[in-house]
Design a protein that fits this description.
Elements lengths: L10 H36 L7 H45 L1
C-alpha cells in the first residue's frame, strides 16, 4: 500500500491498517530475534562460515522493510487525525446552527 491511496480509505479502514502495522511490528521483532539467535547458535556450533550470515541477511531485510512501515504508520496517523478534525468541525457546525 502506498501513502497516496490513504485518503481514499474510511476512518475504520485506516484504524484497521494501523492495527495491522502494529501487529506486523511485533511479528518482525520476533523474527529478527530468532534470526539473531540462529546466528549466535551457528557461530558457537560451527564458527564463522558462509551459512552463518544468512540469518543476518534476513534480519537486515526485515529491518529495512520496517522503515517503510514506519513511514506508512505516520501517514496513517495523519489521515486518522484529519478524520477526527473533520468530525469535530462538523459537530461544531451543527451546534452553531442550533444556537
Amino acid at each position: 500500500m502506498k501513502p497516496e491511496n490513504l485518503s481514499e480509505f474510511s476512518d475504520e479502514n485506516l484504524i484497521l491498517e494501523y492495527k495491522k502495522i502494529k501487529s506486523n511490528k511485533i511479528i518482525f521483532s520476533f523474527i529478527i530475534g530468532i534470526t539473531i539467535g540462529i546466528f549466535f547458535y551457528s557461530y558457537v556450533k560451527n564458527g564463522f562460515g558462509f551459512f552463518t550470515f544468512f540469518p543476518l541477511i534476513i534480519g537486515y531485510l526485515l529491518i529495512k522493510n520496517s522503515g517503510n512501515s514506519k513511514l506508512l504508520e505516520k501517514e496513517i496517523m495523519k489521515e486518522i487525525s484529519k478524520f477526527k478534525l473533520n468530525k469535530q468541525y462538523k459537530i461544531v457546525q451543527i451546534l452553531m446552527k442550533l444556537l
